[in-house]
Amino acid sequence: MGSGKSGKKAAGAGVVDTVSPSWEYAPAPESRDIVTIAPEYGLFISGEFRPPAAGGTFATLDPSTGAKLTTVAEAGPADIDLAVAAARTAYENVWGPMPGSERAKYLYRIARVLQERSREFAVLESLDNGKPIKESRDVDIPLAAAHFFYYAGWADKLDYAGFGPAPRPIGVAAQVIPWNFPLLMAAWKLAPALAAGNTCVLKPAETTPLTALLLAAVCQQVGLPPGVVNVLTGAGETGAALVTHPDVDKIAFTGSTEVGKQIAVSAAGTPKKLTLELGGKAANIVFDDAPVEQAIEGIVNGIFFNQGHVCCAGSRLLVQESVADAVVDRLKRRLATLRLGDPLDKNTDIGAINSRQQLDKITELTAAGDAEGAERWSPPCRLPDKGFWFPPTVFTGVSQSHRIAREEIFGPVLSVLTFRTPEEAVAKANNTPYGLSAGIWTDKGSRILWMAQRMRAGVVWANTYNRFDPASPFGGYQESGYGREGGRHGLAAYLHV
Ligand code: NDP
Asked: Contact, 252 vs 275, CB < 8 A?
């Protein structure tokens, strides 16, 4: 696990240490030079970067070292007024009346520029978020471009999307996104909204504003009319002021269930349309006839991808009792091969935790796992001295009442539970206030269908996990929120249907 130890001969003894790995990868960092980070960033309003009216700023950090990357503007009420007004003007005069075939051209341009500048975006995302470069490079950025390509295709075909003739856009969309997939969440929000003819005010998360600001620069680069996309950086207060602004027609929020509930309360009794994509506590269910090696990869991908900072993470492993010991043994062997470290190193599997606050939350919840009697295991793993880090962790002996089985940890922590029958697996999988996603691992197609029909989860993956496609709708049940993003369904959230 990148311990840096070598299995050299012990001096004088002539004994070979067979426990420590006898070799080490050479570092292979992606160059930082491809990205230029300005010393400070303004707000993107009406096609221009401008300083915040009240002059507030905050720092954004590299979570792998804790070092400051740059200073970012904090949007206040006057900036929000300005951005919403710019979006309104652009909606009424330019973007709303524009034929869909013309809107599509801008979306295609954005998609192409995301591809052309993908290395720049990937390095910047890993710097600001802490995620491994191989994930930002191979997942986040290509998927973000794919979303713009996909919705560009819909822009001139809305009459045929199944919502009746000439469906109308909603107007000005306030879009608030989290820090776990900063650019991808921006793409999930902006692409369908713009394709449908709405204009947008986007609020990225406080800890990860930089790729949204680079995307704003891309909007300038492709000549997007001023005011169609506005980006307001800031913290929770900025988000709250934006979504409660009276001239906003539509709110799209991704983040915690707690904040989602507050937004739902604030929007109740107003004409604002609302979609919420909130937390999850997904079950990844492994039957005794599952292809074990594939399942192990699926479990690892399910919970350790993006350090477990994934709303649909397979954070509860439900494994059939007869194979539980064997599966957990193999899983532990596999985890011992994961490499934790520099996010810009192409060999890295596990990057940094996004913030001190999130690290504290993971630490607190895992301590509750210890206190409630679950058994904690992590592979031998040296954590870097600086920055925010947490080792991949597995808890066995977990019962359904444990906090680590009920609450969203949002970190690289897996809780293992067992079951005997498919009925018990369904009951345990559904025993959660959430309902965003689930995974099923079995050789039998009939069992996959039987299970999928009974699971209250918006997405059910079969013999795979964490697969995303812009054509496929994504969203939750219960406290995981409402509305769907992606696919034709994702358009409905931005149209009067
Ligand atoms: P939040 O829900 O607090 O943040 C999500 C976004 O909403 C951020 O842009 C945030 O700004 C903003 N925001 C915060 N408060 C308000 C408010 N009152 N009104 C409007 N917008 C607001 O999530 P956190 O980032 O604090 O993470 C906390 C927990 O939420 C995580 O541990 C995880 O469990 C869950 N989470 C779930 C996600 C998902 O994809 N389902 C994504 C992220 C988090 P700012 O960042 O500046 O606070």
From this structure: yes
Report the Cα 116 to chain-centroid distance in Å.
Answer: 22
Contact 381, 391 (CB under 8 A): yes
The closest-lying atom of ligand 1 relative to the alpha carbon of residue 235 is: 47
Number of domains in the chain: 2
| Cα 156 to middle of ligand 1, angstroms | 34
Same domain, 261 and 375: no
Flag whether pLDDT at 405 surpasses 90. yes
**CA torsion sign, 119 to 121 to 127 to 133?**
negative
pTM: 0.94
| Cross-sheet strand order for the sheet of 273-277 | 48-50, 43-45, 229-231, 199-203, 172-176, 250-254, 273-277, 481-482
| Amino acid in position 213 | L
Residue 407 belongs to some domain of the structure: yes
8 Å CB contact between 144 and 192: no
Q: 323: domain range? A: 283-462
307 in contact with ligand 1, CB cutoff 6 A: no
pLDDT attached to residue 21 = 55
Q: Whose CA is nearest to atom 27 of ligand 1?
A: 256
> Is residue 195 in some structural domain?
yes
Examine the domain organization and report whether 243 and 287 are in the same domain.
no
Q: Does residue 201 sit in the same domain as residue 287?
A: no
Q: Are residues 289 and 259 both part of a single domain?
A: no
Nearby residues of 130 by Cβ (< 8 Å), 6 or more positions away:
62, 63, 64, 307, 343, 351, 352, 353, 354, 387, 388
pLDDT, averaged across the chain:
94
Average pLDDT over residues 251-271: 96
